Amino acid sequence: MDAATFLLITTFILLIIKTGLATVVAFRAWNHRPARWFVLLVASIVLLNIFNIVQYQPDDERTAYIGLIGTRVVLVFLQIAMLLLLSALFVPQWWQGSRPIIWITLPYAVIFSALLIDLLSDTGIFVQSVVTTETGYRIITDTQAGVIVRRLFPLSWLMHLSILLVAFVRSRTARTTIMLLSVTLVIAAAMHFIKQSLPIAGPLTAPVVTILLLIALAYAVMRTRLIVPIRIALDLALQAMDEAVIVLDQQGHVVYSNSRAMDVGLCADEIVQVALVTANGDASHASLPAQAPDQADLTTNGTLTLHDRRIALTVTPVTNHTGQCQGLLLMGRDVTEIERYTRQLEQERHNLAAVINQLQTEKRERDQLAAVVRQLSLPLIPVIEGVLIMPLIGQFDVERAEDFITVLLQGIERERARLVLIDITGIPGMDAASANGLLRGIQAATLLGARCVLVGIRPEMAETLVALNLNLDDLSTAATLEQALQRELR
What we know:
Helices cover 61% and strands 15% of the residues. It is of the alpha/beta class.
């Protein structure tokens, strides 16, 4: 078996291993965003290996050109897939809020699109030509744009290294995975020196290192997948909340916002800065550096008017286990309807108070009018000194009988009367209760030293008085006022 056949078989076996690894991760953690990017990364690596085989074992110049062009395109796409995978693993906040990952990957995407268009349309912006050499085919990129891209390509890995470095410093849970990736790179460097002494190991260096790197990344994906159910449950709970929830970093940039925050418009950095100033009353609180523990527990409140909606805001610093401020938690509740209902309730309360005052005024007026009516319905007229006439007109019920007793006794005391002529000619009828009240008033007047004479008794009234079985021997009566006056004054 020659070296080329051995390399082809080994590459094929490694492709099977990579595909199997991607399949396992896809089946076990497809709902996890890093898992999907891992599968895409493995697919790009497999495609890169295929193009390498086509590039180094071409049947003709056209096949070599396809291998060379495909290798360059897949390499750029591999950069993008690796960047998206590392960001999803170690800086998931880039995927929240305003999604800064879009702007971070934009230069990579622009270069990838431009390179793909150039290679497919053969415009010559990046790739000048493909030439034949003693060892095979080589692509010429001596154009100005091609030289720039070729020199910047190694620098593009700085973003990946920066993500790993920052994640290693900030996150304890990510250090194990990052150290595993670092060990993989050390092994790759060691294999680079080994291939110099073992020529057979040279072609296998890149595939073996790739396998080790993919195993480390698969471990990171499966390890972070364990917290996905909790994170998804928390995200669902936050999305279901009526309050707008926004998480900001130390610079005041939005790193997370739920759907309610997007509905009310509290998702853009500029609007959130205005909300922070509104809640704190000071623009210096819009971005918070690391603070001491005694300053990190301050919670502020405020109300912001946004798109004709009233938003009640609560700003709370987010601290780590040492008490250092890592960002801000901004919560907002739409109180537009509550304030509108409160104003309506206050207006209704004011209207109700006005109605109650009006009813009380009307009641007092009715009471005064009733008192006047009672006084007019029970007039006590002085005729001469010591003599009073009290004509009774209208219905004489129990209530009016009680008023009769009060007015009669008060009038006798006030006028020092000795004689009271009670004219009942104007009373249409009288029941037993009202008749009893009439007689009680006459008896009470006798106790005050006054004598009462009933004037104008009709037959039916006489029957009512007799039916009471009262002692009527001391009751004086007269047919008319004229008869009573003549008799009594005589």
